[in-house]
Amino acid sequence: MANSAPHFEPTATEIAQARARIAAYAIRTPILESEELNRLTGARVLIKPETLQRAGAFKFRGAINRALQLSEAEKAGGLVAWSSGNHGLALSYVARELGIKATILMPQEAPRAKVEGVRANGATVRLYDKTREVREEIGAQIAAETGAVIVPPYDDPFVITGQSTLGAEFAEQAEQMGAPLEVALFCCSGGGLVSGAATGVHAITAGTAIYSVEPEGFDGMALSLAAGAPTRAPATGTSICDALMVPVPGVHNFPICKAHLAGGLAVSDEEVIDAIRFAYRQLKLVVEPGGAAALAAILSGKIDIKGKTAGVVLSGGNVDPEKFAAYIAQPK
Q1: CA atoms within a 13 Å half-sphere pointing along the CA-CB vector of 235
Q2: pLDDT, position 332
Q3: What does the alpha-carbon distance between residue 36 and residue 67 come to, in Å, rounded to a whole number?
Q4: Which H or E run contains 294?
């Protein structure tokens, strides 16, 4: 996709409208604190577990915001999307709730729990080979043949605005606790979460320093922010963070992040596993690798938050049971 899309950024009014629109559907996830995490970091860390969101991840917000704005004709044509898992889970969940057909394109190596979850929601799963097929081309063909509306996982104004509700909700909750966010960290792949959430946070608390967190080798947002222009990450090898493996930011997402983010961070698989284990042992939460990246960044000291109030989102909890068992069983 060429970087030629007009600049889009949700306004405070549009964010408020989205919050009202999805209020009857999305869970207002709580704020948690851990004495151990505060002790380790020397900070006050507010944790927002979107693992408890419907469909198990923040993606539900963008999916429901998009679906609620479909016309009757668009609903009749159904939805098509591509996803490594969480966007597909969210969109298939939303489609089932609203009585809309959905087709989800998923890579052959997508976690089994995510593939099975999409099918359980009643959507059609079309597995594809990333080495031979282009998901956007398959999606465009299905849309042309069926009249389905394409719902991209991150590079879409409706989806970005849906994710902005998370940032606004988080910042508002923190202010209500008398602890406005000085720093906030969000997991990042193509940038749908961090671009939307950043606008939402800044609509409430303008001075918050916001950081993206990506897997090492797939840190396209961090590289792009440092370069001041979209830059592709090496993307060599692989990562346990299956949800965070987009090597370059989205066309709509990067300009928003360039305007709102203080920087980008990257974490290793080992640091992510440490965060998964910490969340299980200290918070009693199941967090998938891609959902634990932001927590990994503060636990590993990638950013100094000592003496500050910092917000961290656990963005998803959809993980294969045997893999999760292996992560938490590893000795520290």
Answers
A1: 13
A2: 58
A3: 40
A4: helix 293-299
